[in-house]
Design goal:
This protein has 255 residues and is of the alpha+beta class. It has a seven-stranded mixed sheet. β6 and β7 form a beta hairpin. α7 crosses α8. The longest helix has 15 residues. The radius of gyration is 18 Å and the shape is globular.
Length: 255
């Protein structure tokens, strides 16, 4: 399977202008091309991934990395995602039925069939099993890392930054110093950011998830050089599995 050729031949709706165009348009002479295949736009993985991209945006620009993301959703979910995360709408394309995910043979997640349930209900129940670690290796450990902290990961919330993650009261970044210090990912720090994302998605569920049938579908990350040669590949195997290195999700861009 030639991943680059599949991407080169694919057209999807671009969120910025609602035009159906080749997803690699404007990428002909770039230094490095980062292609992110996201799951359903209401998936917490994608909100977290976009947060890391925003955090590292200056470095990515310095390295000459051009980004294109294709996610399961429609124009409304793409627009809401960009408004919340700050991800550029001109770099996001939407695929309403996960056709590109199937072409790239990405992990569909659990697909168990339950009697008397429709596709969306089946997918939601399968998603619950995956959140419990079934058919989703590493998920429970990653959830736990959000609460216990990570000495190998950077500090996620600045000391003077205020986080609004309902139902918690507004929390200043320095509050997390009480859980063990500063300069690294403190206990409860990542869990708080995830709570904020969860509140955002659940408050706008029908917008973020226009079709629940694809809730379990996972995504992938592909990095190409200027000639279309594949430099890095990571295919998600479960919930919260968007990064090979959980402590430093964009580590591969330094290689």
């Amino acid at each position: 399977m030639n991943i680059y050729q599949i991407l080169k031949q694919s057209q999807r709706l671009r969120v910025s202008d609602r035009q159906v165009v080749p997803i690699l348009s404007g990428c002909e002479n770039v230094n490095r091309l980062l292609i992110i295949i996201w799951s359903q736009l209401g998936d917490f993985d994608n909100l977290e991934y976009a947060w890391w991209l925003q955090r590292k945006s200056a470095n990515l620009q310095k390295l000459g990395v051009t980004i294109r993301a294709i996610a399961i959703g429609n124009h409304a979910s793409g627009k809401k995602f960009c408004e919340y995360t700050g991800f550029p709408a001109e770099s996001l394309f939407v695929d309403p039925d996960a056709k590109l995910h199937r072409e790239l043979e990405l992990y569909q997640g659990l697909t168990w069939k339950f009697p008397l349930l429709n596709k969306g209900q089946n997918a939601f129940l399968n998603l619950m099993f995956m959140c419990a670690g079934i058919g989703s290796p590493g998920t429970l450990a990653e959830v736990l890392r959000g609460y216990t902290g990570d000495q190998k990961a950077p500090q996620l919330i600045g000391d003077n930054e205020v986080i609004h993650a309902k139902p918690l009261p507004p929390l200043k970044g320095s509050f997390f110093n009480l859980a063990g210090g500063k300069g690294f990912q403190r206990p409860f720090e990542l869990a708080t950011l995830r709570l904020r994302n969860m509140t955002q998605v659940l408050s706008n569920w029908s917008t973020y998830v226009p079709n629940a049938a694809y809730l379990t579908q996972r995504g992938g990350t592909f990095l190409f050089d200027h000639q279309g040669n594949l430099l890095y590949k990571h295919c998600d195997r479960g919930i919260l599995g968007f990064a090979e290195n959980k402590s430093d999700p964009l580590f591969f861009l330094r290689e």
